[in-house]
Amino acid sequence: MPGMQLVPANYNPAMTCPQCGDEYLHQHRIEVFNRGEDAKEGTHMTIQGETVKVDRDITLNPSARRQGISIYFECEHCPRIAVKLDIIQHKGCTYFEVCSIPLRETFVEAF
User: Fold this and answer.
1) How is residue 21 annotated by DSSP?
2) In sequence order, what are the beta bridge partners of 101?
3) What CA dihedral angle connects 8, 9, 12 and 16, to 10 degrees?
4) pTM, whole model, 2 decimals?
5) First-to-final CA distance of the chain
6) What CA–CA distance (Å, rounded) separates 106 from 62?
7) What does the pLDDT look like over 5-56, one tens digit per residue?
8) Could you say which DSSP state residue 85 is in?
């Protein structure tokens, strides 16, 4: 299984599917987590389609200490998986993590 790769596409790098290597990924859900350093509570915003939900549940925050963003993609060629891109802030550094997850986990009926 290939890892995340950046490939030139119109002079801009394109993220590829870690499962099949294809570039055709469509964003379908975004989650933003905001909190102070090591705070137990914070703000969680989910955007899916035209729906926006704001709550205080930060249990899925990809960062153990501060802010995090999760962007879920669907691959045109991998119908059973989603690609999740996490942007993680930790101790002054920003990290990126990409993984494949079962598609059903990204369509939680939270709305």
Assistant:
1) -
2) 82
3) -70
4) 0.80
5) 34
6) 15
7) 555 556 567 788 888 888 889 998 999 999 988 888 999 999 998 999 999 9
8) E
